[in-house]
From TrEMBL:
This is Aminopyrimidine aminohydrolase. GO terms for molecular function: thiaminase activity. One of its GO terms (cellular component) is cytosol. Catalyzes an amino-pyrimidine hydrolysis reaction at the C5' of the pyrimidine moiety of thiamine compounds, a reaction that is part of a thiamine salvage pathway. Thus, catalyzes the conversion of 4-amino-5-aminomethyl-2-methylpyrimidine to 4-amino-5-hydroxymethyl-2-methylpyrimidine (HMP). CDD domains: TenA_C-like (cd19365). NCBIfam families: salvage_TenA. It comes from Ancylobacter tetraedralis. Keywords: Hydrolase, Thiamine biosynthesis. The active site is at residue 214.
């Protein structure tokens, strides 16, 4: 590829976003997110979501820590080690703020295992983080950041306020979070630019799988899904 062609080539993130636009739209219009925005989401459904998210955040933190260990430069190491810490900080804030406010007792959490979808998404992230090269690991992690940033802003734009879920909405619509997401997009694009064609194809595959699992995570909370046997 000539230098001119290379600089005109779309970034990984632009390509990934446009290829998965229908999937994003399917997430944006899920009944869970509509009900979150208009404040009618039942406490039971939000409780299911929060308990599963607490499990998910620890798995996500582990996957980020593995990504940190695979980083190809010190900036990436710091970026993902810091993000791993943030995932655990967010998980703790679920316990200290949200669980109390929305009526989840420590014993309720202790006896609730990962749902099938949470288990699948967590296993996918940790398995990918261990088995795949750095660019593919970043592609698997990116939808978690990017979709939440977009959904957070979308819900903020149409939210009926005051809303019982204001604190959740504000976390993901806030500028601090969006700045971190832009940095993850930039690092993923840099990693993609240095990746082989085969790795780049695997990046797209991992990105789409994570988007599907994001959809399934919200849908699972809406259905109050549990293990069938
Ligand atoms: C299923 C699910 N997917 C994504 C997020 C969003 N999220 C979780 S941790 C983190 C950044 C931590 O460094 C982000 C963006 C979530 N909460 N739950």
């Amino acid at each position: 590829m000539s230098d001119a062609a290379r600089s005109a080539a779309p970034t990984f993130s632009t390509e990934a976003w446009s290829r998965n636009a229908p999937l994003y739209e399917a997430i944006r219009t899920l009944p869970f997110n509509d009900a979150l925005a208009d404040g009618t989401l039942s406490q039971e459904r939000f409780q299911h979501y929060m308990v599963q998210d607490a499990h998910y955040l620890i798995a996500f933190g582990r996957a980020l820590a593995i990504a940190a260990g695979k980083a190809d430069d010190p900036d990436g190491l710091v970026q993902f080690a810091e993000a791993a810490k943030v995932a655990v900080v967010v998980e703790r804030s679920l316990h200290t703020e949200f669980f109390t406010r929305f009526g989840i007792a420590p014993a309720d959490f202790a006896r609730t295992q990962m749902s099938p979808v949470c288990h699948h998404y967590s296993s996918f992230l940790i398995g990918t983080a261990h088995a795949e090269p750095y660019p593919v690991v970043l592609a698997a992690l990116l939808p978690c950041f990017w979709i939440y940033a977009e959904i957070g802003r979308d819900i903020l734009g149409r939210a009926v306020r005051p809303n019982p879920y204001d604190a959740w909405i504000d976390t993901y619509a806030g500028e601090d979070f969006h700045e971190a997401v832009r940095a993850v997009i930039a690092t993923t694009n840099r990693a993609a630019a240095a990746a082989s064609a085969d790795e780049r194809a695997r990046m797209h595959h991992a990105y789409t799988r994570a988007c599907q699992l994001e959809w399934m995570f919200w849908d699972s909370a809406w259905r109050l899904a549990d293990w069938p046997v």
